Amino acid sequence: MAEELPRLTGLLYEIGLLKRYKRTGWLVAGVQNPESIADHSFRTAIIASVITALEGGNPERAAFMSLFHDTQETRVTDIPYIGKRYLKTSPNEEVTADQVRGVPAVVAEMVSGAVGEYEEKTSLEAVCARDADKLECLIQAVEYREQGHQNVQPWIDSSLAALQTASAKRLADEVLSTGSLEWMTRVLNGD
């Protein structure tokens, strides 16, 4: 364990980079100070738990997978969709295996298991977590559009098209028919 602690500590520092790394697709859309990867992952985990509960699965497992779904971007960065046409990156499971090499086995198995399940897309929780990733992107695009960024429609369209579960599709329809601050108006009006 003594030789594993420096590697485990290093992993925790590495994951902290996600708080500083920006989601690059939003830069393409003209957003000057976009959300961080960690910002995205946080709300994705919340959305994953909600969708999975609505779909009758294990919300904790879906949220857990969502926390790790983009951790590989500490090493490969957040490559914009258009860049992926020209760049070939290692599979996320391979990057994760490198990230957790040398950390305590129980931690390595936990992280690798979450990433593997997410990438395999076979469990209900993984499908819901993937829907949460797309729904979070859609919500963020709507928020950026409300802030005056006009080039976000492709993110809305592609996110909407990728949704699989009935719950995610219903939530997306509601997101698209309401404003991001309507909840506050309801609260202030005592509703």
Architecture overview:
- The protein is mainly α and 191 residues long.
- Helix content is 67%, strand content 0%.
- The protein has eleven helices and no strands.
- The radius of gyration is 18 Å and the shape is globular.
- It starts with a helix and ends with a helix.
- The mean pLDDT is 96.
Concise overview:
This protein has 191 residues and is mainly α.
Features:
globular; single chain; 191 residues; mainly alpha; 0% strand; 11 helices
> Mean of the pLDDT scores?
96
Mind telling me the C-alpha Rg? 18 Å
Helix proportion: 55-70%
The percentage of residues in β strands lies in under 5%
| Largest sheet entry | none
Any low-confidence stretches, pLDDT <50, length ≥5?
A: none
How far apart the termini lie comes to: 54 Å
Q: Count of helical segments?
A: 11
Q: What is the 3D shape? A: globular
| Number of distinct beta strands | 0
Order of helices and strands: HHHHHHHHHHH
Structural class: mainly alpha
Write the layout of secondary structure elements.
Layout: H1 4-16, H2 24-28, H3 37-55, H4 59-68, H5 73-76, H6 92-100, H7 105-120, H8 124-146, H9 153-162, H10 166-177, H11 182-188
Helix pairs in contact: 3-4, 3-8, 4-7, 4-8, 6-7, 7-8, 8-9, 8-10
